Amino acid sequence: MRAIDALQIALVAAGAGLAVGLAGLLVAWLTRRWSIRWQLTLVATIAVLTVFGGALGIAWMMFLSGHDLQVITVVTSIAVVVAILVAFVIGSAMVRWSGAVQEQARGMALGAHQPLHESGPRELRSLSAELAETQRRLEEASAREARLEESRRELISWVAHDLRTPLAGLRAMAEALEDGIAADPHRYHQRIRVEVERLAQLVDDLFELSRIQAGALTLTPEPVLLGDLVSEALAGADPVARERRVRLGGQVEDGLEITADPASLSRVVSNLLMNAIRHTPADGTVEVHCRLAPTDVPGDGPSVDLSVSDGCGGLDPDDMDRVFDFGWQGSSARTPTAPEGADGGSGQGAGFGLAIVKGLVDAHRGRVWVENLPTATGCRFHVRLPA
Ligand SMILES: Nc1ncnc2c1ncn2[C@@H]1O[C@H](COP(=O)(O)OP(=O)(O)OP(=O)(O)O)[C@@H](O)[C@H]1O
Ligand SMILES: [Mg+2]
């Protein structure tokens, strides 16, 4: 074949193919909402018809005889039928595969677990894997939401309980004073003050907790000398410790300084100290230690470890995570008891102290946890903060 003929044939075949292809595109656009089964069938038909269009054009240019064209027409007709059949089979499989993914999504909406879609094209398989992952995340989120809802409900009933008991006591004492039947009015006034301080503390704690929960905590970080901060906290806790005959001690590495919100950090240390004193029997010891610690997260800088150890006799391992929950208290903690001590701070609390500690430490991108002492005489609360 001469080069010029080959060129002419190529041009005619390209022109005819382009015309058929454009017509095919138009039909594809018109039927774009049809099932993928029909779309695939259309693609296969267009492919065969493009060949046939080229052959027609070449025959028109007299490069093919009438006989050749007849042969090509027969072959093309059979090719169209085969192409349609194959496309239909593949299209049906695609419909089945996408139906399975659809089923998986529907099951997801109803909360039922559907098996992961393992067959079919890569895109459908990855869509199915994505759906399964989304379902897992949704389940986690709704479990977290349910836990939060549960703890919110518990919190409300605990707060109601913790308010009702002191209020009933206050009313009884106020009535006794009013009626002039209080045997020792001075002691009643003192008790009323203690109860009011306790209620004020409870309301403060609730306010702090709601700010932590709402993410509305505003920290004002500045350089804090831990030696000074711990000394102040120890001095603040000293009267309560003396009253309970608990020794306070410990050690802070010289010159240890971190950037933190001083008021929040003081609150963390004093909450831990108050708890430790409250749970240590008379003649026991509470110690605060502070040292530079190697980081426990690879890649992060060094951190500071602040620990408060007590003589509580050790915590039940099951309680070790729960102590940081809002309102959680040890077994007999919610039976109404009279507040101990006259300071209003050493008596029965509301179970908010450690939740506040955790909230404040989290806000400083730190970590708090508790462990039992190896001697089994008590436990040690650790606070890790970035140095
Ligand atoms: N140092 C500790 N030793 C032993 N148990 C502790 C200690 N600190 C806390 N706990 C246990 O964890 C519970 C929760 O402590 P948390 O400080 O949150 O609440 P609380 O001290 O009971 O009340 P609040 O702090 O609101 O006055 C306590 O009731 C107690 O059972
Ligand atoms: Mg406490």
From TrEMBL:
Gene3D superfamilies in UniProt: 1.10.287.130, Histidine kinase-like ATPase, C-terminal domain (3.30.565.10)
Enzyme class: transferase
Subcellular location per the Swiss-Prot or TrEMBL entry: Cell membrane
Catalysed reaction, written as an equation: ATP + protein L-histidine = ADP + protein N-phospho-L-histidine
Keyword terms, alphabetized: Coiled coil, Kinase, Membrane, Phosphoprotein, Transferase, Transmembrane, Transmembrane helix, Two-component regulatory system
Secretion signal, residue range per the UniProt entry: none
EC numbers for this chain: 2.7.13.3
Entry keyword NAD: no
Keyword ATP-binding attributed: no
Coiled-coil region: 124-151
Pfam family of the protein (one): HATPase_c
Residues annotated as transmembrane: 6-30, 42-63, 69-90
Histidine kinase domain residues: 158-387
GO molecular-function term, one example from the UniProt record: kinase activity
Superkingdom, taxonomy of origin: Bacteria
SUPFAM superfamilies listed in its UniProt record: ATPase domain of HSP90 chaperone/DNA topoisomerase II/histidine kinase, Homodimeric domain of signal transducing histidine kinase
Main location: membrane
Classification via PANTHER family: HISTIDINE KINASE 1, TWO-COMPONENT HISTIDINE KINASE
Protein's name in the database: histidine kinase
Organism, scientific name: Nocardioides luteus
